[in-house]
Amino acid sequence: FTFLGSAFMLVGILIIFFSTGTFDMIELPGAMQGAKLLAPAWLVFSLIFVAFAVKLPVWPVHTWLPDAHTDAPTAVSIMLAGVLLKMGGYGMLRVSAAMFPDVMVDAAKFLIVLGVINVIYGAIVTLRQTDMKRLVAFSSISHMGYVLVGISSVVGVAGVVSPVGLTGAAMQMFTHGTITGLMFLMVGLAYEKAHTRHIPDLGGLATRMPVIAVGFLIAGLASLGLPGTSGFVSEILIFLGTFPVWGWWTGVAAFGVVITAGYILWMLQRTMFGPQLERFSDVRDATKMEMVPIAALVIAVLAVGIYPSVISDYFTEGLTDIIGSIQDSAQLAMVP
Prior knowledge:
With about 325 residues, the protein is mainly alpha-helical. The chain has one domain. It has 15 helices and no strands. The chain has helices spanning about 1-20, 30-35, 40-55, 65-70, 75-100, 100-125, 130-150, 165-195, 205-210, 210-225, 230-245, 250-270, 290-305, 310-320, 320-335. α4 (about 65-70) packs across α7 (about 130-150) and α5 (about 75-100) packs parallel to α7. The chain is elongated. The termini are far apart.
């Protein structure tokens, strides 16, 4: 998937270069406005969008993610969740929306559909997982769907693009990285201590591993969007930004939060709580060195949840030029 997506993207980039004569990301948005592309704008947009869709990942080019997470070491899984997946969302905002604002506005109806499919499909499939790592991996598909839902607000209302939905999408990329990074860290530590990730084989680990259990609990509650955590802030911004545009589609996406609560609480109850199993009576909690990254991620999750403007203002400021390009394109499209 990655190779194929990159090949499409390379073709799109070469078309842009031979049409504008530059690779400069700062000059390109302006150069694109007066350039005559060697191919239709929608085709170039699609070629580049496919690569970003693979990275996000977007259904149906998502199947590489669960296997990649399951087979990867804990550190690599954290990097995948925290950095690699965000390249897809960043590219959609920084390249697709900035360089093809008119096509992006036209494609918004497809983005909301794909985003809702990602959210609901990813959440339902996650309900079926019995391996903790695969469960978190499939949950990423669902949560990254909210990024697509937020980006779909580019269509605006009467040509007026609200920054709320796009800011929520950008924040969702950050918050998902910290929350899921924390979740993968907890799964890795639990596996190192208990030597299994199979949920039905676990139980009562909180008695012997209270620090890991607290980390799991905070990550889980943030993942399902509990107020006071960063997960709530990004998702509520997405819903507020998209509801005026898409109405009931936003309601369907919001139902994903309910499904998320189901699989997160089920996993926590089956692994951390309940009666302690005899075979785990000698497992040990996280060491002091292991508590350092746990504390750092927990602080990030709670700090953004309590005081979101610590990062939301930066995202809004960074999106100003992109929103301006989309705004101009939308207003021009309304001129008879």
